[in-house]
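User: Okay, second chain of the day. Same drill as before: sequence in, structure tokens out.
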Amino acid sequence: MGILNRLFGKDNNSGKGKKEVKNVPWIPLASMDQLSEIEEKSTQKPQIIFKHSTTCGISRMVMNRFNEGYALDSDQVDLYYLDLHSYREISNEVAHKFQIMHESPQLLIIKNGVVVAHDSHSGISQLNLEECL
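Assistant: Same drill. Structure tokens below.
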């Protein structure tokens, strides 16, 4: 069982092979009012919305990859997390307000009130956030 425990994270031995857990500065996107705030704040610094399906394995994998590779400072962008199942109406409004067809998972980068870059699924990992800022 040793190898299975290591594969599934149940090996509590000396910490060998454990990945460093990054503290990604997620802001929960949980109200419609925040969309206006995001639009306004995007004139000062870029705003990022990550639309995530909590029941989708692909979405979880993409989010994990995003978290592992995230290297921006909090003064560079604001990073919003949208739980699609809990806030479907907000997700629909994001699509309408920013004129981007809904997908999941999906990442939108907003500057000056408009989406300047977006992608979904494995394309999220290919976005170079620094270039978009």
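Residues 66 and 125 are 6 Å apart (CA to CA).

User: Thanks, on to the next one.
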